[in-house]
Amino acid sequence: MSSNQGKRTTEDSKYSQMVLPYQEEALKVLTDFVAIPSVYDEKSKSKDKPFGENVDKALAFVADLGKRLGFSVDRCDGYATELCYGEGKNTLDIYAHADVVPVRKEGWKHDPFHLTLEEGNLYGRGAADDKGPGISCLFALKALMDNKRTEGVKIRFFVGGDEERGSSCLDHYLHAMKKGYPTFGFSPDSDYPVIYGEKSIYAYKATYECELDCEDFSCGDALNIVIPKCSVRLKSRIEEAKLLAMRFSQRYPKVRIAIEGDKLTVTGKPAHGSMPWEGLNAGLFMLLFLGYLYDEKRARDIFEHYSSGKGESFRGDFRDKDFDCTSYNVGKIVYDGKKVEVYVNLRFPSTMDEEDVLKNCALNTGAEIENLGGSRGFVFDLESPYLKALVNAYREETGDKESKPLAIGGGTYARESRNAVAFGAQFPGRDYRMHGDDEFFPLADFQDNMVIYAHAIDSLVQLLKEDK
After folding, report:
1. Are 384 and 184 in contact (CB under 8 A)?
2. Which residues contact 324 (CB under 8 A, 6 or more apart)?
């Protein structure tokens, strides 16, 4: 069995038998769902299609599917599709999303919007994040409905249209539409065995007075991604820059420095903002280079402050019993000839206050700090019967007794709701290339998730009926 293929659940589980008749239809539905290129589109958005034409098509697809499967449907002003089933004192929410991140088609071996089964893997944008897990979970719920296992509880299956850009869809659902929070909820959009805690995530701008003899520049597209490449036009010391580039290449062999005429280009390595130390920030290395070239200490200071990604140099590496570090990702840098503005994606233990974290940053870096907003994280009670039910469903169906509940730096729908956590669908030790080229989901994992989700939902329904 390779690290990315092979069944994990047993075939004689009662839930395996329950979902087996639904697997073929679920795969056909996923094929049609992936074929919709549901990337946010500014040009085609409108009042009733707030995220653009293709995201709306995906949400309409879910609505039609929900009606066929026996749910009542609410299109939620175009922000999401809500599928409801049953009535009861308590409510179970399930949060999935139909939107996907953009693709670079030249980087794909497979057509990103045609679900391709090859060597046991389902290739396509959204196959793993989050169309595959969402459809797997939905058909697990359908199997339970048909077997009369959901009576006495109201179930809301929410499919959002803007999870990848900040979850404005769920915010609209809960607040503008006043749908209310669930008794309990989960999102099939992360890792097993369960995510019990998420760091607080904020953004801030750090401004440094700084003069460099180069043209104004801006680099970086998203605050939650390490800057992979940047360029600037030099105004002086071109020959010195070429010599410095040679020394830089020796000291930092994984960073590429190129000088063509008066143009300096630095190429690093992208990484997710929750773990900036896994990348090489081209913007920070460019500031370090310019700082040495033009003898500007403040530019070198910025590199010193943020190159590790953990804030140790300014005593910002906060941690607690649930979260082992704080992360600072520089996702955008702007220089206007007099000052450098550094835009930072900040993730820290949820027990801390963001103002305290930012005050520390201002005090120990000397920069002017502006809070750009964000969201508080959470830690869910590990002794909660709901959390235990999820972990037990995973362990009983897979036999994996070793993997422990996780506290992460990433953000899911769970932080936007209350009484909710992320649960699956990625198994420990697996990499489905989410957000990357040739994203995939093993067919066996797609089927196994259906088994685990059926077990989990059944257990949660019974707890909610008992009003635990």
Report:
1. no
2. none
